[in-house]
């Protein structure tokens, strides 16, 4: 008899009037919001625009949900298409069953579409979102606690998970593998944040580090689980998937660091509309300054002419007469020869 254990909720559904609030779906939704919120902060710190992460998540999240469900249904098809099973249950996502491998793979396709529409490099966006995804997984794993699923072998440890009797499970105290994975994902997120600051990871290497670190933990956590799963060469299918994905992630980190070292200087191009508005404002200012300069010049010219007229009016009569005689004399002087005329006109 265990004196200490982690209790399981008596139900995974809370009825808010006519609306059922399912714990599994609630954890997934909170995880998505945390990932987008934290990813947005990192994106802005990298020089991106606020709201871009959410705009691309509109594409990535639905694709990820479909991909996660497809992976689960394909790898556990007997739960939905076997004898006595109802294939309609394959669409009941709220009852649990999302494969992270499919969610990341197909979610990346949706993110690629969103990035293409915004002219943003997918690796840079993935780097910004990587820790947030790990935090989202840490939150989402608590949905398994609400559904009393995906637990490990029996244990008498004080932190054992109490599971109640049900058609598909036996009552007892088991390893809380959902909790192990949740804590591991928090550690992965902190690792990526530290490594990104320390080594200035770029071009998708922060995301690849998240993938490699997650796969490392998923390997031993998967080994502890006792739920039904397909085996290949004595190992659970998800263990082999973790091996393969880990190898791909590490290979990407090594090759990417050699081919494209450093970090992207610009992660998001400027908005042409903003540049146009700035240009218009600058042009308007320049025109205004030119008009002011012209007006100033005109006023100065008028003032000079007025001073000149006043000076002429005040000049002595003798000076004015001398000036008039000089002009008259020049006009009455006869031309001496053709050469003089030619020199005057050249």
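^ Assign residues to that structure.
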């Amino acid at each position: 008899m265990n004196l200490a254990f982690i209790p399981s909720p008596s139900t995974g559904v809370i009825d808010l009037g006519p609306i059922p609030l399912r714990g599994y779906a609630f954890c997934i939704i909170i995880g998505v919001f945390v990932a987008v919120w934290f990813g947005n902060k990192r994106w802005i710190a990298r020089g991106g625009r606020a709201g871009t992460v959410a705009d691309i998540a509109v594409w990535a999240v639905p694709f990820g949900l479909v991909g996660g469900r497809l992976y689960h249904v394909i790898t556990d098809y007997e739960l939905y298409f076997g004898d006595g099973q109802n294939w309609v249950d394959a669409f009941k996502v709220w009852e649990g069953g999302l494969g992270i491998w499919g969610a990341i793979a197909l979610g990346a396709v949706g993110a690629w579409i969103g990035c293409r529409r915004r002219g943003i490099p997918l690796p840079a966006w993935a780097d910004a979102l990587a820790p947030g995804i790990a935090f989202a997984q840490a939150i989402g794993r608590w949905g398994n606690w609400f559904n009393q699923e995906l637990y490990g072998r029996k244990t008498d440890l004080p932190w054992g998970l109490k599971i109640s009797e049900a058609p598909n499970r036996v009552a007892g105290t088991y390893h809380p593998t959902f909790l192990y994975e949740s804590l591991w994902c928090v550690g992965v997120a902190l690792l990526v944040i530290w490594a990104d600051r320390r080594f200035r990871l770029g071009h998708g290497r922060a995301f690849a580090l998240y993938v490699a670190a997650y796969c490392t933990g998923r390997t031993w956590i998967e080994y502890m689980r006792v739920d039904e799963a397909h085996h290949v060469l004595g190992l659970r299918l998800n263990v082999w998937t973790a091996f393969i994905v880990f190898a791909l992630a590490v290979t990407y980190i090594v090759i990417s660091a050699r081919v494209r070292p450093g970090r992207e200087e610009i992660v998001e191009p400027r908005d042409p509309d903003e540049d146009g508005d700035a240009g218009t404002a600058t042009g308007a200012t320049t025109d205004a300054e030119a008009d002011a300069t012209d007006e100033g010049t005109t006023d100065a010219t008028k003032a000079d002419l007025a001073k000149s007229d006043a000076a002429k009016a005040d000049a002595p009569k003798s000076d004015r007469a001398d000036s008039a005689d000089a002009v008259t004399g020049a006009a009455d002087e006869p031309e001496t020869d053709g050469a003089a005329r030619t020199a005057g006109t050249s």
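The chain is about 65% helix and 5% strand.
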